[in-house]
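Ticket #4471: structure export looks truncated?
Reporter: QA, pipeline team
Priority: medium

Steps to reproduce: submit the single chain below to the structure queue and open the exported record.
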Amino acid sequence: MRDIYRKLFETYKSYIRKGNFRATEKILDKIEEVNPAKGWYHHSLLFPALSSKGAKIYPKQIEYLKKSPSYDSKDPSTWRALGNAYFQLKKYDLAENAYKQSLKYSRSELYKNDALRFLADISIANGELDGALKMLNKVLRSKHRPPYIQLAGHFIDYYKAKGNQETVDYWAKKGVTSTKIIEKSGKQPYGTKDIYQKRIKHFESFIK
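Actual output as written to the record:
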C-alpha cells in the first residue's frame, strides 16, 4: 500500500505543477482508497484551487481536515493545516490547540519548528509579542530551522506589529533572496510552476 501511495502522490504533484487540478482531484480519490488520512489532507490543500471566488474556502478545508485524524490522529501535518485554516477564520483558540497537537506528534526537529512558528503567529495575533519573538528566535537558532522562504513571513508579521518597518524590509528581502535561490536550484515546487514568482511578489509588497 505504501508503494502505491508514493506512486499516486508523485502523479498528484506532477498534476499540481501543471495546474491540472481536475485531474489532480481524480488522483486524490484513488489516494483516499489506499491512505484515507493523506487523501483528505491533500483534498483540503487542493480545495482552494478548485473553488470559485467568494467560496467559503476555510470552512470546507476544516471539514476535510477533520476527517483525516479519524484515520490517523497523530499526523502533525494535518493538525498544522487545521490550525492554519482556523487561524484564517480568526478562531485563535482552536488554531492554537491544533498547532499544539502538531507539536505533540512531531517527531523531527524540523516539524517541531514548523509548529512553533505557527504558534508564534497566535501570540502575535493576541498581542503577546515577547512570547512570539522567543519562539521565533528559538526556531531561527535551531540547526533544523525552516528555510527563509517559510520563516521570513512570521518575522515580517512580528515586526509589523512592533511598527519597525526597517526590520520588516530586512526580513522581506531575506524572503525574496531565499525564494530566488530555491527557484534557481531547480527544486520542483509543491504547487504550480509560478508559485516562486508569487512568493517573491508577496515579499516585495512589504518593502518600502
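Status: closed, not a bug. The export was complete when the record was re-opened. Leaving a note from the reviewer for reference: Residues 117 and 151 are 8 Å apart (CA to CA).
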